[in-house]
Write a structure and sequence with these properties.
- The chain is an alpha/beta fold.
- The protein has a single domain, classed as 3-Layer(aba) Sandwich (Rossmann fold), CATH 3.40.50.9100.
- It is built from 5 helices and 5 strands; from the N terminus they run E-H-H-E-H-E-H-E-E-H.
- The chain has a 5-stranded parallel β-sheet with strand order 2-1-3-4-5, sandwiched between helices.
- The longest helix has 15 residues.
- It is globular.
- The structure holds 1,3,4-trihydroxy-5-OXO-cyclohexanecarboxylic acid.
- The site of 1,3,4-trihydroxy-5-OXO-cyclohexanecarboxylic acid has 10 residues, from loops.
- The site of 1,3,4-trihydroxy-5-OXO-cyclohexanecarboxylic acid (DQA) has 10 residues, from loops.
Length: about 140
Amino acid sequence: MKILTIHGPNLNLLGQREPEIYGRQSLNMIDNEIGRRGERLGIATVCRQSNHEGEIIDWLHQAAENDFTGIILNPAGFTHTSVAIRDAIAAIEIPVIEVHLSNISSRDDFRQKSLTAAVCRGTISGFGAASYLVALETFKILLN
Ligand code: DQA
């Protein structure tokens, strides 16, 4: 099992960016935790971050040829705006789990609608950095 984690725009600023909402852990710390949990579960993990919609779409398209068996995606702001990322998820066969650090259902009205969630296998939202770990554990159950 080989899982790709994609962090969307502004998540490179985690730790400094609105820490009362997104926590004090840096992206690097979260990626290390994902890596360690992956080792424990026997899952190979790769983590990437991009502020660019097209780059995220390219990574989704290329995931199969790069032998990924599942994708954990935090589309960040693109969750609420990107028909193109939704279409890319729908176009690939690899299962995608959408994750959010914050609980988007309890936030601003415009954040409560996810354009991407309906084409994902499921969504994990509101558990801070643990959302990513729950997604990894979920892939362990689903793909075993
Ligand atoms: C987020 C929630 C989004 O609404 C926001 O634009 C983000 C982060 C989250 O992880 O809680 O950038 O995806």
